[in-house]
Amino acid sequence: MDTTMTAETIPPLLGYADRLSVRPGETVGVKVSCTLPDTFNASLVRIISADPNPSGPGIIEEPVPAALDGDYPARVQIFTPGSCAAVSLRKGVPLPASMTVSAMIWPTRPGHSEQAVISFSAQNVPQPWFVLGIDDTGHGFCRVVMDDGSTAQATLLAPLRERKWCHLWVNIDEENGQLIVGSHSEGRGENNITTLTGRVTGKRSKPGEILIAAARAEGRSFHFNGKIDSPTIYDRYVDHTAILDENNKLEKYLFARWDFGIGVNTTQIHDIGPHSLNGSLINYPARAMTGWNWDGSEMCWRHAPSQYGAIHFHDDDIYDFNWETDFSFEIPDNLKSGVYGIRLTHGDYTDTVPLVICPPRGQQSTRLCVLISTFTWTVYGNHARPDYNTTWQEKIANWNAYPWNPAEFRDYGLSTYNFHSDGSGICHASYLRPLFNLRPGYLTFGASQCSGLRHYQADSHLTAWLEAKGHDYDVITDELLHEEGVEVLAPYAAVTTGSHPEYHTLESLDALEAYRDQGGNLAYLGGNGFYWRVSLHPENKGLVEIRRAEGGIRAWAAEPGEYYSAMDGTYGGLWRRNGRPPQRLAGVGFSAQGTFSGSYYRRTPESYDQKYSWMFDGIEDKTLGDFGLCGNGAAGFELDRVDYRLGSPENTVILASSENHDDSFVLVPEEHLTHITNWPGAPKEQLIRADLAYIETEMGGAIFSTGSITFCGSLPTNDFRNNISTLLDNVFHRFLID
Fold first, then answer.
1. Could you read off the pLDDT of 260-274 as tens digits, one per residue?
2. DSSP string for 507-521
3. Which residues contact 628 (CB under 8 A, 6 or more apart)?
4. Pairing relationship of beta strands 588-603 and 635-642 according to DSSP bridges
5. What is the Cα–Cα distance from 67 to 70, expressed in whole angstroms?
6. Which of 548, 545, 581 is nearest to 566 (CA)?
């Protein structure tokens, strides 16, 4: 894969920070790439509204004087996609002169380009002297560059099969000058052997590097796409039939064998051979992958590590750009908690790096906490929507919206809603790179007549409303909730989510449940929340993993046997499949989805009961939210409903339910049993709805749930004067009273 970046192929000004969630007293490092000359300027702004829609409040940013203010030298910083494993050869441990190199491989893009399975490089030499891999026609090959610069190469006659396990091996016999490359397809008995006889020597006496799944040559990295299991080096010529014979003990000839079933939740690979040539993974390939010998008898890698000895490498893996830091700054103690942006400017170009500033640990300035869904923001980071087209740019230009879209700049690493170049689903996400859709003014749905916002920008409808209504608030991220537990929420009288708190770790979900059970007031102002389970990497908290196991609306499906997280060993997929449906926490859970359109709620008789009518003080309407900047209605796009069988508390009261959704809305997959039956056993028309629910908890707290992603988009309508705004204002005043 050619990783050369030029000024013509990248946006002219981009940056990212090494933190997305930060507290006062902590230091943030900012990394910038600028193709423009001279210097760029940096400043700090507080983000109040990130919606560029001229029918709403528009983008509202407050300049904040900060120590980072100033000009910085412009420079271009590049990034290198593609994952591999790197092993340094120590002095005194030279590679053997005669050897056998082998690996079990499961190629996913044979014939696309030259791909290295294993390569050897001498120190300070620009190209490898040994490559065992697949050529650009899909045939296995081995190439050896001799000391005099001449090359010997043997190439298999038959191509390797896509997504089929194959044993690829090569013998180098220096005594007779033979180079023999061969393959054997497990379960098929297919042997594919090529012999080259001649002078075969190499630079094995010098320290250097072993790469697994890549080779570096002349500024390019020939990355392998697919799984590799049990890469092995023997210290002599070993007949291939002996390698394939499981009863033949070859350990006495072992020089190195990397067992990828060891240290699965780390970035290290372990050599079980005599020299302990351990190595490091680059760009986070997928671990806990089923190996060549997986037989389906065990679905969890922790229970059968010997069957999970594979790593899936990709030529487009990229999760930490590793740019150099252009400037750092310490968050001052007196900085108000909120969503901020590090504004980068050069002439007509700007970029705003997101930064969520939480209050100092153990301190709170208000009684209201806004829980910022940074896990969801990150998981959707650089989502290249399949329906994107360049006609969106006209609307973007008219609204002066954020101009760059990940669908046009796919090399920056896509989201877990996209696929790798080999067609496998992307299971890792990170904010340690520029994320185009985490910018003020970014439009998720550029063809819609409404704002077309999600996540970061849609959540700003809530913060803009809080500012307009005079509600003071702190912000806490789910990343902080994961690290510190319920204690970070306990001081607050009320906690509110934004529009889409979809992704949660076990720790963050536990903390929310504990807050509720201790008598806290919880407002769930979104839809499709608390839906997918994710894990964080123990060595790098900026890396999030999702395994899209059975059920749910899935952008892709994990391979059988690969449903358990490599990072913490737990079963992935829906929280519902883990025995914790969203209804258990918030009273409502995901029920239906349609296009990005919204409808309204109709009040139920219960809403007029004196016990609940206080929420509707000042509201005479029987219907609520038939307006909004997102989807043109408060109940839209993704809808949650009450379901007592799935865990909605028995005292859950439905105050309003949506109706009149268009024909695009369908039940979510986990609700279907057959083409004519569903899990709840009710007519599907009754299940396509958002429920506005209220629950009083045993410890004196309460839960208010809206069941719709587009609910917050209705708050700014008519300068924040509308029945949705009044409803939420009434709820918050009750939640926040002493």
1. 999 999 999 999 999
2. HHHHHHHHHHHTT-E
3. 450, 598, 634, 636, 710, 713, 714, 717, 724
4. antiparallel
5. 8
6. 545
Chain segment 65-82, per-residue pLDDT in tens: 999 999 999 999 999 999
Question: What six digits make up the tokens of 240?
Answer: 């291939």
* Helices (H), ranges, 399-527: 455-469, 478-484, 506-517
3-class DSSP state of 738: coil
CA nearest neighbour of 133 among 216, 242, 234: 216
Residue 334 scores a pLDDT above 50:
yes
Cβ contact 20:542 at 8 Å: yes
- The DSSP element (H or E) to which 503 belongs, if any, is strand 503-504
Phi, psi of 536, deg, nearest 5? -110, 145
pLDDT bracket for residue 427 (50, 70, 90): very high
- pLDDT band per the 50, 70, 90 thresholds, residue 5: very low
Q: How much is the pLDDT for 646?
A: 96
Q: Is 400 left (phi over 0), alpha (psi -120 to 50) or beta?
A: left
Name the nearest CA neighbour of 324 among 9, 29, 38: 29
Across 15-36, average pLDDT: 97
- List the Cα angle 538/544/545 in 5-degree steps: 95
Q: What is the mean pLDDT of residues 389-394?
A: 93
pLDDT of residue 244: 58
Q: Are 18 and 329 within 8 A, CB to CB? A: no
Bridge partners for 522 per DSSP: 495, 703
Separation of alpha carbons 105 and 170, rounded Å: 14
CB of 286 within 8 A of CB of 546? no
Q: How far is CA 300 from CA 163, 354, 416, 548, 666, in A?
A: 21, 37, 22, 14, 33
Residue 587 — pLDDT band, cuts 50, 70, 90? very high
pLDDT at 6: 43
Tokens of 576: 């519902």
pLDDT digits (tens, 9 = 90+) for 95-127: 998 999 999 999 999 999 999 999 999 887 878
Closest CA to 447 of 398, 404, 387, 403: 387
> Is the separation of the CB atoms in 183 and 166 below 8 Å?
yes
Alpha helices in 569-673 (DSSP H): 582-586
Provide CB contacts within 8 A for 284, sequence distance 6+.
83, 267, 317, 319, 320, 428, 430, 537, 543
Quick check: 255 and 95 in contact, CB under 8 A? Answer: yes
Nearest Cα residue to 282 out of 324, 313, 323:
313
Token readout for 36 is 């423009």
Contact 20, 368 (CB under 8 A): no
Average pLDDT along the chain: 93
Write the DSSP string, 112-128: SS-EEEEEEEETT-SS-
Q: Token pair for residue 217?
A: 């040559």
Nearest CA-CA partner of 507 in 526, 480, 531: 480
Residue type, 108: T
Confidence of residue 252 (pLDDT cuts 50, 70, 90): confident
Q: Any idea what the Cα angle at residue 400 is, between residues 399 and 405, rounded to 5°?
A: 100
* Model pLDDT, residue 592: 97
348: left (phi over 0), alpha (psi -120 to 50) or beta: alpha
Short-list 446, 428, 454, CA closest to 526: 454
So what's the pLDDT on residue 130? 94
How much is the pLDDT for 92?
85
pLDDT digits (tens, 9 = 90+) for 444-476: 999 888 999 999 999 999 999 999 999 999 999
Q: Which residues of 608-637 are buried (b: 16+ CB within 10 A; e: fewer)?
A: eeeeeeebbeebebebbbbbbbbbbbbbbb
Q: 566 CB contacts (<8 Å, ≥6 apart)? A: 264, 265, 286, 287, 288, 301, 545
